[in-house]
């Protein structure tokens, strides 16, 4: 059996947004288990950055994960979160199927959702809001190794993209999720 992993790194707009999210999130368990292929969900607080949360879910296939994305509860929860509760949601799916960056600017409310170059992660996260120039918070590397980064140069990233299996069949770096 193949296992498919989806990981999200989330920042909330405010402590109040996170408290409200926990109420919505607590209900997720009642909806997830009805989807064939659902295996696991965990939520983690980052040890060095109290505003950074990690969600990891495991599925038997991309189709199983997509069934959750089509679930009515998930659609409404996502819509609610994008209307102010979250500031940033970095979503990464492995076997690198889809990587994208979803951001809601806390200053102007601009929602951006697009391709996210994992080879150049820190470069991508350093980009300000396209509307107002707000600089989203980032987490620096830590001495404890809870946060360690190494972006590839643009040239190395392009070479790695060229030599890796074509992501076109899975939608990686080309997919715009709605």
TL;DR of this structure?
The chain is α+β, with helices and mostly antiparallel strands and 178 residues long. The chain has helices at 15-26, 28-32, 62-69, 72-85, 121-125, 154-163, and strands at 4-12, 38-45, 53-59, 86-94, 98-104, 111-115.
Describe the protein:
By secondary structure, the chain is an alpha+beta fold. Helix content is 30%, strand content 25%. It has 6 helices and 6 strands. It has a 6-stranded antiparallel β-sheet. A hairpin with a 3-residue loop joins strand 4 and strand 5. The radius of gyration is 17 Å and the shape is globular.
Which runs of at least 5 residues are low in confidence (pLDDT < 50)? 166-178
Spatial sequence of strands, sheet with the most strands: 2-3-1-4-5-6
Q: What class do helices, strands and sheet pairing give?
A: alpha+beta
Largest sheet, in brief, is: 6 strands, antiparallel
Radius of gyration: 17 Å
Task: Break the fold down into its secondary structure elements and pairings.
Elements: E1 4-12, H1 15-26, H2 28-32, E2 38-45, E3 53-59, H3 62-69, H4 72-85, E4 86-94, E5 98-104, E6 111-115, H5 121-125, H6 154-163
Antiparallel strand pairs: 1-3, 1-4, 2-3, 4-5, 5-6
Helix pairs in contact: 1-4
